[in-house]
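Database export, one record per block. Field names are fixed; values are copied verbatim from the stored entry.
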Amino acid sequence: MPTKPIAQDSLFSAADNTLLEPPQAQLARLSPAWRQTLQETGTQETLKSLSAFLAGRLASGAVIYPRLVFRALEYVEPDSVRVVILGQDPYHGPNQAQGLAFSVPDACPCPPSLRNIFKELALEYPGAPRRKAHYLGDWARQGVLLLNTSLTVEAGSPGSHAKRGWEEITDAIIRRVAQSPQAKVFMLWGAHAQSKQALLADTRGGPLKVLTANHPSPLSAQRPPKPFIGCGHFAQANAWLEQQREAAIDWIGGASAP
């Protein structure tokens, strides 16, 4: 079983939400199933070179987020993932990134993309209470894989670790989930996430549904032809999961700590 996720409040003091050790040193936190995925021949070499790159950046004084790069994998086994939500790279400001795509600690101001995600939830579930927790660990515990395609970023420099090897590693994670027997929904928001759709085309896994829309960023959330606002993805995912005799995701719940 994966290591129990660390309580939210213990991770996000100003001093310790930065990367402290390279990814290879963090594999021990993961379950055997995830370690096997990340230690396959090609992926293992990429992880080794990426760890060397990050160690060099740390030695040069770079501030890198988040502390736990594989935290999204700690919550759910590959064969238990029921929804995948893909992001691009972690938030690049202090005390934001926590290893779950789009999620921030509750004490952190709500970023614009997450604010639009909550706006969409309110549209889809008008009779439900408004979600207040910015921390999305409750989604992760229900089998929602909140995965960025790059798992580290340097402070104040969005996209700074793109094309350094993370994409190969997260592609392996996406393929592993797609090939699992579990019924699952992929929510692909924006062109970057939708570019990963090719990874889902040739699998022999369980039932799979793909939902696409613009990214929830204010720059694109309401832009045609597939605006994020009004996409209906959360309700559609639950309806499809229930058709597959799976439990729906409680998107509103929002406990504020693991």
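Remark 1: The longest helix spans residues 41-59.
Remark 2: The beta strands are 64-65, 83-87, 144-148, 153-154, 184-189, 208-213.
End of record.
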